[in-house]
Structure formats: C-alpha cells, structure tokens
Amino acid sequence: KNANAAQTVQLLNRENGVVVDVCEPKEFSSGHIPNAVNLPLSSLKNRLPDLEKYKDKPIIVSCRSGNRSLKGAVMLRKHGFVTVYNLAGGLQGWERDNLPVEK
Question: Which regions of the chain does DSSP assign to beta strands (E)?
C-alpha cells in the first residue's frame, strides 16, 4: 500500500504510526521526517528484530524518492509486519507538501 504525505501524517497522529527511513545514514542526517527510525535498506533484513516492538502499529517506510522504501515495505510484509505503507514520493514528496524535516 502507498500512503501520501497527508495520509502519513494521519497515521502518525491518529494511530501512533512509525516512520522507518531506509536511506543510508549520511542521507538520513541531511534530512528526514521527524522521529523517523533509520534502518538502511542494505541492513534492514538483519535489523528486523529492532522493529518487533512496532509490529502492532502502522509502519510507513520512507526514503529519498520512494524506490528503496517500496523494497523495504515488501520485505517487512514478507516478514510478518501487517500494516506497512510505502511513502509515495518519499522525502521529496514530503518536502513538496511543506511538511517538517529534521536534520
């Protein structure tokens, strides 16, 4: 499932959703959605236990443009995470909608 920026804000505010940013740490430090958890796609499979505590919450997977996050979302679903969304347009779309970015 894809979620646009407005839907993501609702998931975060109304359902205690969690943003998982699959960018590399250098990209993450140059800007990300506030309170996002950084788990780079390259190490996501090995770090899945870090996300177990969020299994009952909606997880929105984010990256710069939406390509890597789609791969990350598919991986999470394959490993039993049920409510997983891909942030359509990634951080670039988020910024286009003038939503806050943390550095």
Answer: 2-3, 18-21, 37-38, 59-62, 84-87
